Each structure stands twice: as C-alpha cells, then as structure tokens.
Amino acid sequence: MSAATSGYYFAPPSKWPVVGSTALLFMGAGGAMTMNQIQPFGWASLAIGFSILVYMLFGWFGQVIRESESGLYNDQVDGSFRWSMSWFIFSEVMFFAAFFGALYYARVFSVPWLADQDNALLWEGYSAVWPTVGPYLEKNTAYDFTAMGPWGVPLLNTILLLSSGVTLTWAHHALKAGHRGQLVAGLFATVALGFTFLGFQIYEYVHAYSELNLKLTSGVFGSTFFMLTGFHGFHVTLGAIMLTVILFRCMKGHFKPNHHFGFEAVAWYWHFVDVVWLGLFLFVYVFV
Amino acid sequence: MSTAITPTHDHAYQGAHDARDHHDDHGPGNWTRIFTTTNHKDIGSMYLWFSLFMFFVGGSMALLIRAELFQPGLQFVQPEVFNSLTTVHALIMIFGAVMPAFTGFANWLIPMQIGAADMAFPRMNNWSFWLMIPAAILLFASFFVPGGAAASGWTLYPPLSIQGGIGLDMTILAIHILGASSIMGSINIITTLLNMRAPGMTLMKMPMFCWTWLITAYLMIAVMPVLAGAITMLLTDRHFGTSFFNAAGGGDPTMFMHIFWFFGHPEVYILILPAFGIVSQIIPTFARKPLFGYASMVYATASIAMLSFIVWGHHMFTVGMPAAGQLFFMYATMLIAVPTGVKIFNWIATMWRGSLSFETPMLFCIGFLCMFTLGGFSGLVLAIVPVDITLHNTYYVVAHFHYVLFPGAIWGLMAGVYFWLPKFTGRMYNETLGKWHFWLSAISFNITFFPQHFLGLAGMPRRIPDYALQFAEWNMVSSIGAFILGFSQLLFVWNVVSCIRSGEKAKAKQWEGADSLEWTHLPSPVPYHTFEIAPVIK
Amino acid sequence: MQTMIRPALNILTNCALCRLKAAGVFAAMCACMVPNAWAGYDFNIPQPGTPISQQIYGLHMYILFVCAAIFVIVFSLMFYSIFKFRKSKGVKPDVNFHESTLIEIIWTIIPFIILIAMAIPATKTVLDMKDTSNPDITVKVTAYQWGWRYDYSAEDFGFYSNLSTPWSQIGQPGTPATEEKGKDYLLEVDNAMVVPVGKRVRLLVTSNDVIHGWYVPQLGVNQYGIPGFIKDVWFKANEVGTFKGQCSQICGKLHGYMPITVIVKSEADYAKWIEESKVKFGAKPLTASLPASASVEDANKKFTLAEAKEVGIKIYAANCIACHQTTGKGMPGAFPALSGSKVVQGPIDAQINVLLNGRPGTAMVSFARLSDSELAAVITYTKNSWDNNTGKIVQPADVKALRKA
Ligand code: HEA
Ligand code: HEA
Ligand code: CUA
Ligand SMILES: [Cu+2]
After folding, report:
1. Distance (Å) from the C-alpha of residue A21 to the closest C-alpha of chain B?
2. Mean pLDDT of chain B
3. Three-class secondary structure of residue C140 per DSSP
4. Cβ of residue C250 closer than 8 Å to a chain B Cβ
5. What does the alpha-carbon distance between residue C181 and residue C203 come to, in Å, rounded to a whole number?
6. Cβ–Cβ gap A122/C291 under 8 Å
7. pLDDT tens sequence across A239-278
8. Atom number in ligand 3 closest to CA C247
9. To 5 degrees, how large is the angle CA B402–CA B403–CA B405?
C-alpha cells in the first residue's frame, strides 16, 4: 500500500465477462442435459459453451498480456495480483481439503462403522479392510480389484513432479538474472516433465481399468482414488497449459527481470499442484 | 456544503495510463454499459437491483408456502412442488438475495470508505456479477423440466438428492456457478481491502463495514470451495457411479452432512457479518458518538469467524454421533454467544450517553438488535444437545433462522439502503414511508415467526405441506403475518423508486453524525469516478 | 470416558441442579398459567413421557428463563438509553465514552460463566441419553418412503406401520377434501408400535432408501434413520399411554405423511399383544430389507392365488397405497390407476420390470429392495384386484429370472 492509488490501472469496459457468462450458461445447460441423456442437445450445448469459453479465455488473457506488456501494471497492481493469486490458491487448497476430508472420513469412520457390531445386522460378514468396495458391492466378485501400488508409476510421477519444481525454480532464477536461454530451457524442461507426468497418469488409469479392475465405480476406494487423482490431474493439465503459454511468452521476450508476476503466478500454482501430489502420494498410494 | 470535499472529481487529472477517460460518458441510453461496465458503482447497483428482484421471487415462493400452510389439507400445490418451493425459496434467498446484496454494498462502499478509486479488479468484478445470471436462469428453468426443481431441501442431503431428476443437476450446476462468482467477488474485495487503502488508512482505522467484509470474504474463500467439493461428489454419485454417500459401496450419507455443514455454518455468518458491519456504521451515526470498543468489535468478529469452523456438528446432533462429538460441538457452539454478546453490548454502549435520533435506518438497527438477539437465544437453545433432540427439524428451527436472517440479514440490508440511498442517488427517501415500512415489517414479522416457536415446541416438523389439527391455529396466524410482511415490502420498493425519481436533494453529509470518507470527502450523489487521487488519512 | 466424567459432573450438577429446580418451579408456574388461558393452543414441549424427556423439558425451561432474563436486562438498558439520551431532548453526546477495557472484560466473562452453568446440566443429560446399555427389549425400526417397519426380532415378527388417514380427508390441490378431518388427522397409523411400560426399549434405527427421522417428542427421541447404517437410541416410558410423532427429516414427496404411533402398555397387555402379533404378523417373516437379502430367499416357493393375494395386500398396503391408493385408482394426474391399467392386465414380465427398475424420472422408483416373493405377491395381488381379473399368478422364480437379467 505504498503509493497512492493514482497510477493504478483500472480496466476499461469489457465484453469478456458477459461472453464468459454466456459460455457457462451453455455449459451448465449442456452438462445437465448430457448427464441425463438428452442428446444431441446436450453435446451441442456443451460444445457451443466450450467454444465460447475458449474464445473468452483467448480474448481476456490476450488483453491482460497486452496490458501487462505495455507497462500498464504498476507495483500496486502487481501487489493486487499477488494477493489475489494467494487467495485463489487458498481456495483451491480448500477444494482439495473437501476430497481429502472425504477420504479421511471414509477410512476412519464410515468403513469401520459399517463393520461394527450393530451394523452386522445389515452387513453380515463385512470386514472393513481398506481398500474396500464396500459391504454390498463386495458380495459381487465383478467388483474385486487390486489397489494401485505406490512404488511403480506413482513414485516415478513423484520424482517427475518434484524435478519439475526444480527446473521451474531454475527458470525463475534465470529470468531474474536475465538469462533468456536458461529461462526457456528451464521452462521447457518443466513443461516436458509436466506432460510426461500426465502421460504416465493416463497410462496408470488405463492400467487400473484394464488390469487391476480398479474403476471409478469401485466403491468408496475407487471414488476417492479417482476423484482425488483426477482433480489433481486436471490441475496439472491446467498448470501445464499455463506453463506452455508462459513458455511461448518467454520465447517472444515477454517479462522483465524485476517484473514478471505472470510467470510467478503460474510458478506458485505449479508448486501448489506439486504439494497436493505429495499429499496424494502419501495418503492415496503409500498408506493404503 | 462542499467545504469538506477534496477535488477528487477533478477531471484535469487522469493517471497517464488510465484508460478510463475513453468511456467517461455515462449518459443514459448507452445500454451496452450494463454488460461491459467496470465501474464499482455501476456493478454495485446491478448487484443491488438483482438481489431486490430475487428477494421478491424468493418471497413470493415463501408466500406460496404460507398459503399452502394456511389450513391443514392440500389446497394449492402438490407435496413435491411444495418441497421444491421450500428448497428454491431458501437457495434464492441465501445465494440470490442476501449474498449479492452484501456484495453490492461492498462494491459501492469499500472503495469509497478506504479512499480507493475502484475495486482492485474491475473487469473480474463485472464477471462476478454476470455469473449470477446463468445461475439464476438454470435455477428458474429447473421448475419447468420433467421431474421439477430440486425438492430435497436446500441442504441437498443424499440419498434424497440422488433421486431427483435433471432439475437437481441444474441446481447443482447453478450452485457451482454461484460459488465461482462468490469466490471471485471475495478475492476482489479482500484484495481491495488489503492493497488499495489510501495512505494513512491503516487496517485499524477502517470503518467497521470494511472489517466485517474482510472477514466475510475470508470465510467465503475458505468454505465456498468446500461446498463445491460436496456437490461435485453428489453429482458423481448421481451420474458416474461413485459411492461417496452410499453405504453399499463403503460411503456414508452422513459424510455429505459433515462436508455440507463445514460450509454451511460459516455460511450463516457470511449472511450476518456484513449486516453487523452496516449496523456498526449506522448506530454511531445516529448516536452521534464513536462506535464503542472498536478494537474489541474487530476481535469479536474475527473470533466468530474462527469459531464458526468448529461448530458445524450442531446441525447433526440427531444423526447418531458419539457423545464426545455432541459435547464438543455443543460447547463450541455455545462459545459463539460470547463474542456475539460482546457485539450486542458494544452497540448498546454506543447508544449509551449518546444523542439519539430515530430516522428509518436507526429504527431498523434497533429492530435488528432486539430481534437478532432473540434469534441468537433460540440458537443457543438449539445448541443444547438434548433440547435440540426435541426441536431438531421442527418449526422451532425455522423460527430461529428466520429471526437471525430476516431481522438480521435483511433488516441490516434495509437499514443500509435507507442510510446510503442519499449518498448513492443524491436524493432523500420519504421518511414517513420508511417508518411505516419499519413498523409494519416489525409487527408482521413477529406475527409470522413468533408463533413458529410454539409450533416447533409442540412438535410440528418442518418441510411438510400439511399438518395435524393441533397446529392449525398458529399456522393460520403465521400465514396472515407472512402476507402482511410480504406486501409491506412493496412500500420499500415504492420508497426506493420514488426517491430515485423525485426525492428531495440530499446533502453531502446527509447525516449529522456520519464520519466515514464517503460522507466527509464526497458529494451526494457520488460522482462516477471518485478518489482518483487518494485522500490522505491522518 | 463416561465413568471418569460422571462423578465429577455429579458434584458440579448438584449446585446447577438446585438452580434447575428453581427454574423448574417457575417453569411449571408459567406452564400452568398459560394453557389455562389459551386452552387448545400448544405453546410448549408436550407433556414429557420418559425420564429423559423430563430432563429435556427442565433444561429447556431453565435455558429459556436464563435467556429471557438476559434479554430483559440487556434491553432495558437499551430502552433506557432510547428514552433518556434523545437528541430531541437536547442531550449532548458524551463522545469520550467509547472505550472501557474493564467493562468489556466484565461482559465477556459473565456470559461465559452463564454458559458454563447451562453446559453442566446439559452434559449430564447427554451422557444419560447416550447410554444404550442393558436394554429390556430391542426393536429394529426401518424407515422407507413413506412408512415404517418395526421388527421384534426376538419374537420373530415384524410389521409395517403406515398412515391410515384416508386421502379423502386430505384433499388435492383444486379438489377439496370430501370428508371431515378426524381428530388424529395425519397422526394415525394402521399398526402402532407397542412397548411395555417402565422398560428400557432400545431402538435400532435404519432406513431402506433415504434419510428419515424417527421422532416422538414426548419420548425424547429424534433419530435419523440412515440407509446402510444402524444407529441406536433408547427410551423408557413412565406410564401407559399413546405417543405420537412424525418423520422429522425430509424424505421426498410424502414426508409429511409419515406418522409414528407408539402405544405403551402394561406388561400383561404387552405380553398379550406379543402373542397376538406373532399370529398376525409372524408366520411367514417377510423381510423388506436391502437388496442383499433378496438373493438369500427361498426361490422355489410356489404361491397359490389366494396365498399370493393375502400376502400381496400387505405389501401393497405398505408400499403402494400412498400413490396408487387402496382403490387402485391412483390420483389422477399424479399417479396412474392400476385398476384397469394395460400394464397390470398385460404380460407379467412387463410389470415385473416396472417394479424392478421403476420408471426413471418419475415417482415410480425401483422396488428391487423387496424380495422376490414379496414382489411376486404384490404383482399377483394387483393383477387380481379391483377391475383386474387376469387370474395370472406371478411366482418368485419369475421375478428372480428378470432380476438377474
Ligand atoms: C444469519 C444466520 C444465522 C446466525 C447468525 C445463527 C446463529 C446461531 N445459530 Fe443458527 N441457524 C441458521 C442461521 C443462523 N444461525 C440457519 C439458516 C439454520 C438452519 C439450517 C437448516 O437446517 O436449514 C440454523 C440452525 C441452527 C442450529 C441447528 C438446529 C437444528 O437443525 O436442529 C443450531 C444448533 O445449535 C443453531 C445455533 C446457533 C447459535 C448458537 C447461533 C449464535 O451465533 C447466536 C449467538 C447470539 C446470541 C446468543 C445472542 C446475543 C448474545 C448475548 C446478548 C450475550 C449473552 C448471552 C448469553 C450468555 C446466552 N443454529
Ligand atoms: C435470507 C433468507 C430468508 C428469508 C429472507 C426468508 C424469508 C421468508 N421465509 Fe424462509 N427460509 C429460508 C431463508 C429465508 N426465508 C431458509 C434457509 C429456509 C429453509 C429451507 C429448507 O427447509 O430447505 C426457509 C424456509 C421457510 C419456511 C419453512 C418451509 C418448510 O419447512 O417447508 C417458511 C414457512 O413459513 C418460510 C417463510 C418465509 C417467509 C414468510 C419469509 C418472508 O420474510 C418473505 C417476505 C415476503 C416477500 C418479500 C415477498 C414479497 C412479494 C410480494 C409482495 C408479492 C408481489 C410479487 C411481486 C411484485 C413479484 N421460509
Ligand atoms: Cu420420512 Cu420424512
Ligand atoms: Cu450452524
């Protein structure tokens, strides 16, 4: 809050918010219809909504990038970006907390309760060993599955993500020191590691479905496993896309050694995704 | 009159990069403005109009509910439609009326009160508003799809909410969108408060309204994503075969309740803290004396927010939780009475030895004090586990939360509208009409909801379209009250509209005791752009 | 944990209890005063019927009066200022009176102490309520949309309990009720739950479909039935009588039509009731439980028409009348008539499929939770009642075959 507000850049009127809202209207309606098998309207509406959203994202972020590059963002604007990105990441933490909470609750409370003395009236013989498909699905052998072991692909993925954090930090140092070549190299490595992670994740899902019979429908274990890793994967995807954009911007010579919050924001996000993965690795894979 | 006004609307000065000079024409007729505007005052007004509209839609549903409950038997709607009305009434009032109205005030007031020219992210600000429109469309449209609107109560407990049709999916997606809107709005507000204050405006000099919003925004950023998580799990349980809330697959319906109420309880403070802020601005003004115990007000608000994260279990005393859980949640809940009491006492101490006058905003605040405290007491009664066992899901609970929500949140807002209308519009509302509005609301509110305590104590469950004969008298009284209450609100609309069109000219400092920047540094009405040079606060 | 806390609590409660008693006296005074003046209106928690609900009653009165006292004190100060410190009376504000650490500490501590005085008796009651050990009898309560089932497992019988108020008293939007509403409108059931007086009754509460709430205020019980979980509560009725309650948790369309009646009988009468019920409900234990049980049933059973109709009418009464009505005529516009329905008069497979799968998106949900023989019986019943005289008999094996497919 150093300077007066005077030099603060306030955006001029913009059509992008309304465009974005229109996109969400189509996506919401399309999503609801698709989930209820109202076709082809569902897919059509989703497709329209998604196209508008992409259009909006390009337009909006394009404008932000132009504003940023023409030097409209002073230090105070930078401060706003920092605060807002921190709070945004906090909101993401809370989103994941809900799913971690579900995992914790199922393991510590609901599954043991289902096997307690009173519930034997309903679920005779249920032994509540985690991982589980639950007392009813368990009776159907079609649901038998094997949990994903931690020391294969997941460990590899942990290493990939951790090293991507390192390469990203390297790129950041290079940016601050004005070494463009290293910056691009570091970023490129980060993006490559990110996409490799995603590749392995896809491989892991295919493996789970085809060989381990571990599916989204595999009781509460499958639900928490796929929703946690899935949302994480989705965040990695977003992060990797954003990193790619940053990579292209760096190649075009964007950002200055002392003024590059766009870069830092994505870096923060990437580290956050990294930390979530560590939580997943421990609570979803290792301590099964 | 304008001696106190710094030359803030001096257009000679524009920051070199300030793109705003290009759109300075705010003449009427430019209809695209409402879609594209990035001005906090425009957006604030849009929020306020939107929530007034939603208040009437939600209120009309309440009146349908009350009409059905006027007599035993089924008269107007099928039971499942009744359930939908209850559900959507609550969702609209909470997410469509109260929260957006507070955000509207935040938009209008926060930049002016901290000496900023606008919100930190004006473009995102506009999006926060416009996101509510697709959500509202989805919510309304859900009444007209096969299977009807969500009918599971606003709490959306599975497995009942697993049974609904496409209307439930539309509701869930609407809440997702509203959540995104709230999170963006909150990030904007919190960033503005932390980063845009004028030189000298330290945190502990901020007006109380800013403080309560700072804390509210924090609560929202913390809990809206949790709600998003809960309803996402609901969606996947509904359509993608997950078993989060299904015992057959090792899940637990109770798990939904835990996640929902981890959001839900802080949510009810989201619905009241900004009203606390508004009241804390108005009472000192009409007592002509500074707010008593400013610092302890700030700490009390923060304590309420912190405690609100650990009390959620009081909505679940009847799920069969272990005694230790019940006791923990009971003690934690009771504790909230302490900081809330501090606030009540501080307000009364502000009035003590003041020089009081009783214009409409002040009347609403005094009404707020009495009625909110009653609601708080019934909350305390519900916090006592054994008592809650007999009262849970009865009309006692309905009475409790309407006491904190209507005279709490809604009167807080009404008081705010009367208080700042002269500032927003440059015109005065009609004081006589305002007083009529207050007294009619106060009396009919109590006719509507006080008897609901008796109904609850006598054992009438909530969310039922029809009831046993012993409940008939009080329901009839309650319904009569509701209709008077509903139609009294038309006075409010009339007053606001005629104020804007033909009210008397208001003064820059319309209220003698007002002392925040919007009164001391700005004319009425406030110009389109303010504080482009930040004022310096000593 | 309870054993550790309890002695300490007892000491604490003794002092809180005298206050509780004082409050109780005051409460009783008011409680007597009010109903006399307002005969016919209900203001308060109904007459307690168990030791626990007595405690609850006392607790509520105690807290109510403490809160009322605080309200009076706090707001008399406010109204005093409203009358005393008016601008119109020319009062000048004392602008320096806006802080006082001492006062603020006092009004933080006093409420805290009051809260402790409330928490102590409350804690004691919680611990008493939660102690479900040593029951005299145990009844399993299963909720379903929209009725109850009570299983007296030790006696080997169980039965359904449904609303018995006819729809002709309730009416329909647009078409008023044709019959006068009775005294127990919406609170009457076909088969009440019966328990002996003065005995600890433990309830194992669960549900078949969605969450419901078994709520009888006078017995001090309000317990969610959660599908897939069993939760236990207990009560001990002080005296013989009839206690009424309703489902307390929204459970769909007919949530408001899901009453509970508990009849407390003397031990001798209770024993007699048990014997009668064994005959009435026992014989063939029909288990309406989660799908798991369906496969365990005797699939080789062969119904005769009479047998199937006799069983079927019970299942129909328990599961179908809410919508399709006793007359089989449904409710025009909402629920189709089964009497004369093409589906019911048509091939058996089509109807079995409706019952097993429901009609997605309508109120007609899947009844796969019923067992094969239950479904066979109820379908046979519908095919041979009202205007339907198909003579077709559906056997459990038929249902089983389609359930598998
Ligand atoms: C604005 C919203 C709002 C607010 C502020 C509150 C405030 C409180 N609420 Fe309420 N509540 C709701 C909205 C709100 N509530 C809603 C919407 C529901 C129902 C949800 C649903 O199921 O649909 C609900 C339900 C609800 C329940 C669950 C009931 C049930 O379902 O069985 C409980 C139980 O503990 C409860 C308790 C409280 C308490 C203790 C407070 C406290 O914060 C109150 C504190 C205030 C005071 C106590 C008064 C002032 C204090 C003094 C003057 C000091 C001296 C006092 C003493 C020493 C006693 N609330
Ligand atoms: C901020 C929140 C808020 C507000 C302001 C209100 C306002 C009102 N509420 Fe609501 N209510 C809730 C939040 C709120 N409610 C919640 C959370 C629930 C629980 C839902 C659940 O169980 O899931 C609930 C449930 C609820 C019930 C219980 C329903 C049930 O259990 O089945 C009832 C019954 O009386 C009720 C009544 C009312 C009434 C009479 C008003 C009045 O104050 C309304 C005043 C009326 C108006 C403002 C209408 C004005 C309209 C006209 C005059 C008509 C003219 C029309 C036009 C010009 C368009 N509400
Ligand atoms: Cu069953 Cu409500
Ligand atoms: Cu709460």
Report:
1. 5
2. 92
3. strand
4. yes
5. 32
6. no
7. 999 999 999 999 998 999 988 999 999 999 999 999 999 9
8. 2
9. 60
DSSP code of residue C250: -
Q: How many domains does chain C have?
A: 3
**B149: Cα within 13 Å, side-chain hemisphere:** 28
Question: What was the ipTM of the complex prediction?
Answer: 0.90
Interface of B with A in 151-190 (CB under 8 A): 165-166, 169-170, 173-174, 176-177, 183, 186-188, 190
Residue C167 lies in a domain: yes
CB B333 near ligand 1, within 6 Å: yes
- What residues contact residue A43 under an 8 Å CB cut-off, 6+ apart? A30, A34
The residue of chain C nearest to residue A112, with distances taken between CA atoms, is C229
User: Is the Cβ of B195 closer than 8 Å to some Cβ of chain A?
Assistant: yes
Find the mean pLDDT for residues A195-201.
96
The three-class DSSP label of residue C203 is strand
Encoded tokens for B397: 């609970």
Which residue's C-alpha comes closest to atom 50 of ligand 2?
B486
**Residue B200: CB partners within 8 Å, gap ≥ 6?**
B536, B537, B538
Domain ends where: C78, C99, C130? C130
Pair (C126, C146) in one structural domain:
no
Q: State pLDDT tens for residues A167-189.
A: 999 999 999 999 999 999 999 99
Ligand 3 contact, C251 CB (< 6 A): yes
- Secondary structure tally for chain A: helices H, strands E: 8, 0
Dihedral pair phi/psi, residue C163, rounded to 5°: -55, 135
Which candidate in B124, B161, B240, B243 is best for mutational testing of the A interface (most A CBs within 10 A)?
A: B243
How close is the nearest chain B Cα to the Cα of A32, in Å? 6
Range with the lowest mean pLDDT among A3-12, A85-94, B394-403, B440-449?
Answer: A3-12
> C306-343 pLDDT, tens per residue?
888 888 888 887 778 767 877 788 766 567 889 888 88
Closest ligand 3 atom to residue C258 Cα is: 1
Final residue before a domain boundary, out of C254, C285, C316: C285
Pair A55, A107 in one domain:
no
Report percent pLDDT > 90 for chain B.
Answer: 88
In whole angstroms, give the CA distance from residue C248 to residue C258.
9
**In terms of CATH, what superfamily is B38-501?**
Cytochrome c oxidase-like, subunit I domain (1.20.210.10)
Task: Please report which ligand is nearest the Cα atom of C210.
Answer: 3
Between vectors from CA C99 to CA C98 and to CA C102, what angle results, nearest 5°?
145
Whose alpha carbon is nearest atom 1 of ligand 3? Answer: C212
Residue C223, chain B, CB below 8 Å: the answer is yes
Specify the pTM: 0.89
CB atoms < 10 A from the CB of B350, how many?
A: 27
Domain span holding position C364 = 305-404
Interface test with A, best of B26, B40, B119, B123 (most A CBs within 10 A): B123
H runs (alpha helix) in C188-292: 267-277
Using alpha carbons, select from B470, B462, B83, B393 the residue that is nearest to residue C185. B470
The verdict on A78 and A62 lying in the same domain is no
